[in-house]
Backbone:
């Protein structure tokens, strides 16, 4: 069988030589309806990954957790978030008195042979592109500026230090007065900001409905034990899977 064309909903027919299909998934939360608080298509948790039942923790793609940087609940679908949320949940269970709330900047990446890109933050607001997108193997990227502050950054073909720079500039959310100047500086802007003394990012008010989760049931000792075993198993699997991926 060979694909020769694609029929759109509008009735338009487009001739093609190849079709690439990206198939995603949706978290199956039906089992928890009426038992746990659900939000954003997942299980709503607090900064310690506890659901509305204090003995139940949710991590990874299924968890909708508070993202402090943007003052709202997010559900993220990426291996980095899954690994780090698992690690944080285990810490919250084992050493709750030493574990603060999860403070995570949304992060996505991809690597294909010698090509790689990383994205941090949020893709809302005005987009400022930089670099040469036409030259093969060149470094290029973009910033997202919302309400006068950098809220997201993308970079293709960067070094470890350059990726760390765009991650830091996204977390700091520096103020931007001139988009044209930001475009002119390009990647150098992130590198310069990342080398300055660390300053606190502008505060974002988080509504109580987003940051506070009412725990409907008490935490019993055997629940906590079961939670520790489950979370530790998940973290161990994530670590093992990550090592296998690196070997591939």
Residues:
């Amino acid at each position: 069988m060979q694909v020769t064309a694609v029929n759109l909903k509008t009735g338009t027919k487009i001739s093609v030589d190849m079709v690439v299909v990206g198939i995603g998934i949706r978290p199956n939360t039906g089992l928890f309806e009426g038992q746990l608080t659900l939000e954003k298509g997942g299980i709503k948790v607090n900064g310690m990954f506890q659901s509305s039942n204090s003995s139940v923790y949710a991590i990874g793609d299924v968890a909708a957790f508070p993202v402090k940087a943007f003052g709202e609940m997010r559900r993220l679908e990426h291996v980095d978030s899954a690994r780090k949320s698992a690690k944080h949940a285990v810490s919250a269970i084992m050493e709750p008195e030493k574990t603060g709330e999860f403070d995570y900047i949304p992060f996505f990446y991809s690597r294909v042979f010698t090509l790689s890109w990383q994205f941090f933050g949020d893709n809302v607001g005005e987009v400022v592109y930089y670099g040469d997108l036409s030259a093969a193997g060149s470094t290029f990227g973009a910033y997202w500026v919302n309400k006068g502050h950098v809220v997201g950054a993308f970079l293709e073909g960067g070094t470890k230090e350059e990726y760390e720079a765009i991650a830091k500039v996204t977390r700091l959310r520096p103020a931007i007065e001139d988009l044209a100047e930001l475009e002119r500086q390009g990647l150098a802007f992130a590198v310069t900001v990342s080398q300055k003394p660390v300053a606190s990012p502008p505060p974002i008010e988080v509504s109580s409905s987003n940051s506070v989760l009412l725990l409907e049931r008490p935490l019993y000792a055997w629940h906590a034990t079961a939670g520790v075993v489950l979370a530790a198993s998940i973290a161990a699997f994530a670590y093992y899977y990550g090592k296998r991926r690196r070997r591939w």
The helical segments are 79-94, 160-172, 179-185, 187-195, 208-211, 221-247. The chain has six helices and eleven strands. The chain has two domains: 34-104+218-247, 107-195. The longest strand covers residues 149-156.
